[in-house]
Request: fold
Amino acid sequence: MPTFTSLLLRVLPTAAVAGGALLLTTGCQQPKINCMAAHGDFAAVYELKSGDPDSPCGSLAGDVLGMQSYSQEGGLNGTPDYNNAIVAIRPGELGELFQRALGGPEEGGVNYNSDEWYDVNSIGKFTAGLPDENDFCMAPDFDGGAISLPLLPLVEAIPPTDDDPNTPEDETDPGAPEIPEVPATSISYTWSDARWIVSADAQGTQFEADLTYERDGCTAEYHVLGLYPVVGCENDDECNDDANGINPDFAVRCEASIGMCVLAGPPPSYE
Reply:
């Protein structure tokens, strides 16, 4: 499963990762954790709300979403301001296209301007430093989250890469290139009403949001559920294996259309 968190770490290189500070409380009350998203890849399942299900926009089943949250500067004595954090989301689809476009033609790319990499991340801001009474941290609006390829004049597509002689041939098409041509395309993700469960038991590892997806002139709207970490599956038993890294208290299921374990319902999704 592809991992895009290494690129997400470049969103604000000087910022500190959110979630490092806890409020000290007295008595037996569980201390609250600052608003954060788990650092890494989420398995996301998409539920179509509007749009043509047979169109390129309306046929998405899900994706891997790379996420990271960052505290801003301005805390006491030069420390990060843990009550002022932003969150970045990068869908796997945009990450793969961006990686293809970074290199020159010999690498299957078109010399994408590396200074413009920031645009493929969707950036939102938490509305508060701490979760609400229901353990939700909210980020209602996001900027960015788009890519248009190719960027160079007179180039109609990202060309295919040469076949790698060290990898097995595609039996259905022995002459096929290792990575096919990427036609010119324009894609945007607009996230809204995003929220994460942030508690001692779920430190930003359950996520949901609304998504408006646009591609080459068509539009579709989805509701998205996300689960950290990404675990591949073929059946529900594999998702309920206590050794797979998913919090065993979470209610999860296997989504066959994307081959990943996902939340069984909207957050908070618990057994």
User: Anything to note?
Assistant: The longest strand covers residues 185-198. The first helix runs from residue 5 to 8. The helical segments are 5-8, 92-102, 236-239.
